[in-house]
User: Fold YbtT protein from Escherichia coli DORA_A_5_14_21.
Amino acid sequence: ASHDREASWQQVDAWRQWLSHVTGPVVIDGDHFYPIQQARSFFTQIVRHFPHAFSAMTAWQKQPSTSER
Assistant:
């Protein structure tokens, strides 16, 4: 969205790694307020659409911190 007033170019570009495998639109059921009113359900849908991103995050989180090494 080159003219998006809600998100900067840097914010939009940050999603590139999550969406690099997506070849078409991603549609999640719900109205405009769904992410706010049904946050848990919305997050569940996001995890289902992008499992590879969350499995990588989980693996990273399980690594010992540098202070523990």
